[in-house]
Amino acid sequence: MLQWILGSTNTNLNGLYAEFRNRTGANYPFVGADGTQLNGAPPFSIFSRNTNATFVNDEGLIEEVGADVLRVQYNPVTLEQLGWLIEGQRADLITYNAANTDWSKVRCTVTENYAPDLFGGNTAQKIVEDTSSSTSHYYQSKSFAHTSGQKYCYWGVFEADDRSKVWIDFSDTIFGSASTCYFDLITGAVTSQFSGIDAAGVILMGNNRYLCWATDTATSSGTAGAVFGLAVTDGVSGYTGNGTAGVIFYGAQAEIGTFPSSLIVTGATSVIRDADELKIPLSSVAGWQDGVSFSARYKGISAPGIGSSPQYLATIDDGTTSNVIAVYRGADNYIYLNVVDGGVTQATVQGPQVIGSHTVDVEITVIEDDISMSVSVDDGAAVTYGPDTSGTIPTGLTDLVIGNRSDMARAWFGVVSSYQIKALP
User: Fold this and answer.
1) Which of these ranges, 22-26, 124-128, 317-321, has the smallest mean pLDDT?
2) Is the whole-model pTM more than 0.85?
């Protein structure tokens, strides 16, 4: 059985440790960090992101930080520290995504500064229906460009007030008919997902606020706005308003992708959030020996969805995809351990299927001709997968990449809670 070396004591993990130990005559180089106890980038790491970005802070509020600041994400409901938030590049296509500017109000009005907002201010709005009969009442962003064949995710954050049902709609002209999804702000659930919608979900943001999201694939190119409407009956957008009822609205986002990412604050133009890049040079690990057997353990929280590209929890590589030891969630939602040496796949071990956002705890063992992993999901019992008995350990490895691989093309889009690497005797 493997014995993990966690520092001087198992309760003292306030950062990264990189040491060289001797145990029963064998050398044990190891490196690791606990993202739930470290407020910032771990020592010896190289982190970069060229733009501002947001995260949920220890008060459950959205906080924006500048470039090159590693985000430490908290649970917005329990305020538990979760770990480092690692995402790929995304852009918010909606201008003034948390303001009344540039938005069209169709058979509704907007009450400004109605409630505390997500940032700790008091600028949340109330979308108020008018008295029009047997018709829809909705709030629509300024139009933005869409490309045929591209997948888009629209989302908004709402809270029930006099009304408790909302819907998100994609333009019929660009996305085709039946591209509407309904949500209940009391139960926090998707209640009707029309046939044109690819996927949808709800994320509790604390204090009865829900992030409601839906994705669809454009079938034509053109410009259109994202539509967020009120409802009294599930699946039906039209009704007669009373002139006073509505819901609280905290902001919205439209991004290219199949699931929502963190909020990107916009003004008069759309804004890009660049990818997070967190690397640990293996040269910082005292006693690291290239090509020797080792074990590693990575823990994180997966994204609420996945597209056509895998999402990498962690990678040990040489800066290329030719020599790689990677743990990732594939486009089929299965967890994989993949070992590549000289561009040739040495081992691919398939683990459990993880659909949506879940805690995953992966321990891998990389021994020549004996490559395996064990996976625990949501703190359940760990299950072992493998071994693959024909794999060669790649050499020339230079970096541990957290939440991606070296080319930054396979972001985890979730939280990385901890990592540990240890040589085996």
Assistant:
1) 22-26
2) yes
